[in-house]
Structure formats: structure tokens, C-alpha cells
Amino acid sequence: MAVGARTADYREPDLNRLGAEALDDATDDEGAAAFETRTAAVEAALHGRRLDQALVVLAPEFSRSHLQHLIDARHVRLDGMPAGTASRRVRAGQQLSLELVPTAESRAYTPQAMPLAVLYEDEHLLVLDKPAGLVVHPAPGHWSGTLLNGLLARHAAAASLPRAGIVHRLDKDTSGVMMVGKTLPAVTALVRDIAARAVHRRYLALAHGVVAEASCTIEAPIGRDPRVRVRMAVVPVAAGGRTARTDVARVAVREGQDRGDAVSALRCTLHTGRTHQIRVHLASCGHPLVADALYGGRPALGMLRQALHASVLQLAHPVTRAALVFECPPPADFAAAWAQVLDGCA
């Protein structure tokens, strides 16, 4: 059979159905054994062409980038042997075999059972204590084992909701309380309440240095850092920054051998929910979070991940509109570091 006459019709899942954001192609070999294998003989018209170009004819529904990943992962064979590199030239008549391993993001929206620390749950709303280290939503490098995967396994209705009901996120290494909608009316109401700033979120944070003021408000727009794309930064609105406001209250200060070793324990209240907001605002004032390497923090007091914990969530129930308040104690690493600051405060 010539390249172009496929043995089966393959379609990737419609990610838009789940409200997923656009995601880059990637490959994950886990579970590949069950995938379709497509075979064909290289046509004369493709003689001397690159292997990845021949594969585009055999499997046009995949991106060339993904096909190159499959070659590197040994999912492509020529005459029964691993094909080698994407730049290899093919010959007319060679038997080309391709294991149709889906892109990793097409498998991101699959149920994966996981333990969740549930603080509250009814038919419309789920409130949980997210542990540090758990990614909330699939993204490049984290296509499985996310909270979204766990929600899809927890209740069937999640598959019909945008992002499985996730209406806000905590960073991977931030712990604490977060909410999830379980029905479309609940998701809609929660999104509207967040936009109207009717949902109140308070955090505990440990920051380097002595925060001089007992309380202050940081108002500075936040946008993508133009020099380092994985970071956010204080960026003028005219350059794409979005308004952001954080209230900061100093709880205690632990002096070190010199001023650079001091750590301040803070309570932070969000009035907006920009990406990395507390981390960016404090770093912009010269007080990066302890162990937040992305924004200039260093490990201290036993903390090896950013010292940020979502401690209080206050909202109206999305359907009944009853007032709800949830408090979530910090995990052991943060609690121990926090106690050291309070015990050694100035």
C-alpha cells in the first residue's frame, strides 16, 4: 500500500469541548502500547525525501513537530528497524511503519484517580486543600497527574465543564484552599464573582528582608516579563500590564546575622488575581518570597519551595448564595518555617 492510503482513520479528541487553552505539541510514551500502527510502502514520488516529510503524507493529522518526536521516541520503523533521525532519506518501496501515539496534550484530559483533601463538597461546589507540588491545569511539561485529571476521575460531570470546573489556580508549589465548580451554573456564578471581586482570598507568605511598614497596599500592573517569558513582572498598562492590587500586613520579622538574612512573615490579601501576583509584587519591592528562585528568593528556614500558602477563602455559594468561609492550615514545611519567624521575631 502506498504512503497516503491509510490503514485506519484517526481523530484526536476535541480539546475545545473541555474549554482547554491552546497547547503546544509534546510526546509522552506512557501507555503507548495500545495505539494504532499505520503502515505503507514509500511511493516513488517520495524517493529521496526526508523521513519526516514522508510521515506527513502518511499521517497528515499530526504536526511535523510531533512526528519528529515520534521518530526520536522510536515509534517509526523502516523495513522493520527503528528509523533513526527525521533527516534520514527514504527510498521508494521501503516499508514505513508508524505507531500513532497521540500528542501528550490530547491525553491530558483523561481521568486519573488521586486523593484530594476535600474541605467542603455539595452537588455544585468543591473546596479543597491543594498540596504543594500539584499542578492545577495541564500545560507543557505537565500533561498528566494534574488536579484537572483528578477532577475528571472524581465526578463524571467534570468532563462537560470548561477546564473540568477549575475557575482559578494556585501555582504548582503554592499550597492551600481553592474552589472548583461542579455544575455549569456554579462555574458561571464563580467566574462572575471572581470578576466582580466578590471572592476574597488571603495568603500567608514568608519574604526575604525586613518589611518596614506594618501594613501597605501594592498597586502595580502585572504582565509577561519581556525579557524572561516564564516570568511575570510589573509592566505598565500601556505595555500590556493589567491592574493588580495586593494588601500586605506584617505579622512578624525574624532578624538574621545581617539584614540580608532577615525574614518577614506576612498576610497578603488579593484584590485581583493576576498570575504570580503576590510573588511579583513582593519581589518588585525587594522582598522576594523565601525559596522562590524564579523571582530571586533563596531557600531558608527549611523551605525548599516558594513560601506561599492560601489560607482563607471567602465567597458566596454559587447557587444558594449563602456566605461561606474556609480556613486551611499550612502544611508541615510552611508551618515549621512560619513558627521559626514568630519565635525569633524582633
Quick take:
The protein is α+β, with helices and mostly antiparallel strands.
Describe this structure in words.
This protein is an alpha+beta fold and 346 residues long. It is built from 6 helices and 15 strands. It has helices at 51-58, 64-72, 147-154, 184-195, 277-284, 332-343, and strands at residues 37-41, 76-78, 81-82, 95-99, 117-121, 125-130, 175-181, 200-208, 215-219, 222-224, 232-234, 245-254, 263-270, 308-316, 323-327. Strands 5, 6, 7, 8, 9, 12, 13, 14 and 15 form a 9-stranded mixed beta sheet that branches. Strands 1-4-2-3 form a 4-stranded antiparallel beta sheet. The chain has a two-stranded antiparallel ribbon with strand order 10-11. A hairpin with a 3-residue loop joins strand 5 (117-121) and strand 6 (125-130). Helix 1 (51-58) crosses helix 2 (64-72). The longest helix is centred in the middle third of the chain and has 12 residues, at 184-195. The chain is elongated and about 75 Å long. It starts with 36 loop residues before the first strand and ends with a helix. Mean pLDDT is 86; it is low at 1-34.
Largest sheet: 9 strands, mixed
- The percent of residues in helical segments reads 10-25%
Q: Order of SSEs, N→C?
A: EHHEEEEEHEHEEEEEEHEEH
Based on Cα principal axes, name the global outline: elongated
Low-pLDDT sequence parts: 1-34
Overall residue-averaged pLDDT value: 86
Structural class: alpha+beta
Question: What assembly state would you assign to the polypeptide chains in this entry?
Answer: single chain
Distance between the termini: 79 Å
Total helical segments:
6
What Rg, in angstroms, do the CA atoms define? 25 Å
Task: State the total count of DSSP E strands.
Answer: 15
Strand content: 15-25%
